[in-house]
Design brief:
146 residues, alpha/beta, Nucleoside Triphosphate Pyrophosphohydrolase, four-stranded mixed β-sheet, globular
Length: 146
């Protein structure tokens, strides 16, 4: 199992909706999960730097987080292409003064295949939705961040 750190950006619009991307969960999977933009840290990169870089790569815009301190740190195990990961996700909060357009600028071959779309969700929509999202406690976290 490969240990890795990742940075993810919880971007809230003026109506406190969070930006989530719909991802395939595997190379040949039809199963999806909705997650905050983000990904693994590159060598020498901090989780907050990774969160900012991944937001730009995956969504085409840059927003500084409210703080370099994460609002949530969560560990999860997952695998891709037969490689198992023990990942620590660091979630950072950012506020957008409007809903920035999300551009199809996915840079890696995997992201082009795996990212199916985006949506801005309210905490109430997440609570009522049957879709899977990460982190699992996201609606409660969003309510606490208001």
């Amino acid at each position: 199992m490969i240990a890795r750190s990742a940075g993810r950006m919880l971007v809230l619009d003026p109506d406190n909706r969070v930006l989530l991307l719909e991802h395939r969960t595997g190379l040949d999977s039809d199963e999806t999960v909705w997650a905050a933009p983000g990904g693994g840290c590159e060598p020498g990169e901090s989780p907050v730097q990774a969160a900012r870089r991944e937001l730009a790569e995956e969504c085409g815009f840059s927003i500084a987080p409210v703080s370099d301190a994460p609002v949530l740190i969560e560990r999860r195990d997952w695998s891709l292409g037969g490689i198992a990961y023990d990942q620590t996700d660091h979630f950072f909060l950012a506020h957008a003064d409007r809903q920035p357009p999300v551009l199809d600028v996915y840079r890696t071959e995997w992201e082009a295949h795996a990212v199916l779309g985006h949506r801005w969700f309210s905490a109430e929509e997440l609570l009522a939705s049957p879709v899977r999202f990460e982190p699992a406690g996201l609606p409660e976290l969003l309510a606490a961040l208001r």
